[in-house]
């Protein structure tokens, strides 16, 4: 049972957490490079969602 849970769910969880971390990094770079901030957030939403 433990092997099944580790192989099935932990891999999916890891991939999801990695993707969310990448999105957070991209968003912070966009906002910090744009003096207005909101344009970076808009572009992030447009290209990822």
Notable characteristics:
0% strand; 49 residues; 88% helix; Ferritin-like_SF; 2 helices; mainly alpha
Query: Overall mean pLDDT score?
Result: 78
- The number of E-state strands comes to 0
Percent strand:
under 5%
Rg, alpha carbons: 16 Å
The secondary structure category is mainly alpha
Helix content percent band: over 70%
Report the total helices.
Answer: 2
Give a short account of the largest sheet: none
| Contiguous uncertain segments of 5+ residues | none
Encode the helix/strand succession as letters. Answer: HH
The N- and C-terminal alpha carbons lie at a distance of 35 Å
Principal-axis shape: rod-shaped
Structure description:
With 49 residues, this protein is mainly α. It has helices at 2-33, 38-48. Helices cover 88% and strands 0% of the residues.
Summarize this structure briefly.
The protein is mostly helical and 49 residues long. It is 88% helix and 0% strand.
Protein topology:
Layout: H1 2-33, H2 38-48
């Amino acid at each position: 049972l433990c092997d099944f849970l580790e192989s099935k769910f932990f891999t999916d969880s890891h991939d999801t957490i990695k993707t969310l971390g990448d999105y957070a990094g991209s968003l912070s770079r966009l906002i910090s490079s744009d003096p207005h901030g909101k344009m970076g957030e808009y572009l992030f939403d447009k290209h990822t969602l």
